[in-house]
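Re: beginner question about structure tokens

> Can someone show what the tokenized structure looks like for a real chain? I only ever see the sequence side.

Sure, here's an example I had lying around. Input first:
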Amino acid sequence: MSLGEDFAKEVRKIFRETWTTQKGRKVPEPEDLGLGNDAVELDGTVLYADLDDSTNLVDRYKPEFAAEIYKAYLSCAAKVIRSEGGVITSYDGDRIMAVYIGDSKNTSAARSALKINYAVTHIINPILKECYPKANYSVRQVVGIDTSKLFIARTGIRKSNDLVWVGRAANYAAKLCSLSPNYPSGVTSSVYSDMDESVKYSNDGRSIWEAFTWHDMNRMTIYRSTWWWSL
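And the corresponding structure tokens:
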């Protein structure tokens, strides 16, 4: 059988095979699903944390320096996510994806975004300046969050596969990361409406978030923030 014939056989199998879908009670691991049309459905909140302008970073600086920036940012983001009950589902170069489930998933994800902003502003950048005083570089980043029903399937081939996350939340959370790093945290209105008051307002009653019209996404209303949550 030629490679092309093998491809055709596999594609026909994928398109014709009936899906077996189960309701999820936890964030699945790849081994929880088969490579056939096997899927898990769950209500989840997706967080993407993404370094801003990493292309400029790798173009202008030594690879060792860029790698240190990646490692510092992703390490802090990962520890924040886990401390808030999020499950890390993938690393993709300069960004990390995580999923939150449960009754407080939107509050936990939003607080994660604010804590990641604190880590960048008050820990990573000051230490970066201390260790590299001549480097004209500061870490800037954006965290995007959305919530929706998610359809999770295992994709790839034997011994080389991972999960694919199908649903609005995965798509929108990633797209939010393309917005200006002047507002390091962004959430959709679906997330904002289900967040606890503790992550909406400061101790003196000021709003942590401001409404913003996202023109590139059918003028939908999102909420963005420059605030942080102390670690």
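Each token stands for a local structural state, so reading them left to right follows the chain. The mean pLDDT is 93.
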